[in-house]
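Record Gamma-glutamyl-gamma-aminobutyrate hydrolase family protein, 255 aa.
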Amino acid sequence: MSRLLVFQHVAAEPLGTLDRLIRRRGHRIRFANFERQPDFEPNVDRYRGLVVLGGPMNVEDQAQRPHLKTELRAIERMLEQGKPVLGICLGAQLLAHVLGAPVRRHEAPEIGWYSLRTTPAGREDAVLSPLGDVSPVFQWHRYRFEVPREATHLASTAGCEQQAFRYGENAYGFQFHLEMDEALIERWLRNPAYREELAELGGLDPARADAEAIRLATREHIAGMQTRADAVFNRFLDLVGRPQRRITLPSREWV
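=>
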């Protein structure tokens, strides 16, 4: 039975629908909840894969949140060992940062439903291809990553070109949230901190900062996204337990 390590930053951002898929595979999950255990030091050698979830903090917050440095070192170690890594939102930004790519505040937050367009490489990708050419996905981010130099660009939206990448054969960064279900989206819409971000978007794009509009779009799109997300996540989980090929990473410019 393989063991997977999951980095969780806040209770509001869990594994979502990915949780049941991992457990259905028979994998054991070890959660590192840095909100509860900020000093946790994981021994990544004991695990066959890593999932890094989202959170309200950012890569630049390392001085105030030293656990981010711990996470960066752990991601680096997993990559060096050739083990599967999946970064979601903040997790994707941390993965990009380890690979030497800048992470910057985006011109305008993306909150709610957006059309994701895959690149030619994304449409052929072993993991991401179930999304097809264009697919509605749920977003909630204010920062974005640049695609790392040696990575493959997989997807974009009209307002944010850098939405997904693959590094090597089994490390993926997704800026969007495929793990959402309707209950989790509602939880975010009712969370005071998240509502502040939604209000911030209102000053830039009032039409998108409407919680009721997001709820309506969720009812329209959530079932289709979950079907495609299950296929994407299952293909990522297919990578767990495969023979590992160690790789040499770029110089540690992020340190």
